[in-house]
Amino acid sequence: MNAVETSADTMILLRYSEAVGSVKRAISIIKKRTGAHESTIREYRIDRRGLTIGAPLENFHGVLRGVPTFVGGARPLLEGQGS
């Protein structure tokens, strides 16, 4: 059996999860051919203003499984989530 070879320079993982009664989106860079990449998972939002990427989700476990568990303090994920 031959190993699978990827031809992508970068692989981005996008996930949906539920938190506090609403759907949240998470983004993570899981492979980058050249240079170092972040190992963090971040929330992102797409709205009429464009793409917003938040701070690393340091207060959650299980985001990539789609079942996040909150383990931190009480603060909003992305500021200005009125939409």
Instruction: Note the gap between the termini.
Output: 50 Å
What would the average pLDDT be, to the nearest integer? 78
Number of strand segments: 6
The major sheet is characterized as: 4 strands, antiparallel
Task: Provide the succession of SSEs.
Answer: EEEEEE
Which percent range describes the beta-strand content? over 45%
The percentage helix is under 10%
Name the structural class: mainly beta
In a nutshell, what does this entry contain?
With 83 residues, the chain is mainly beta.
Fold and architecture overview:
This protein has a domain at 10-63. It has no helices and six strands. Strands 1-2-3-4 form a four-stranded antiparallel β-sheet, with no helix packed on it. The N and C termini lie far apart (50 Å). It has 83 residues and is mostly beta strands. It has strands at 10-19, 22-32, 42-47, 50-56, 60-61, 69-70. The chain is globular.
Give the topology.
Elements: E1 10-19, E2 22-32, E3 42-47, E4 50-56, E5 60-61, E6 69-70
Antiparallel strand pairs: 1-2, 2-3, 3-4, 5-6
Entry keywords:
single chain, 83 residues, mainly beta, four-stranded antiparallel beta sheet, 0% helix
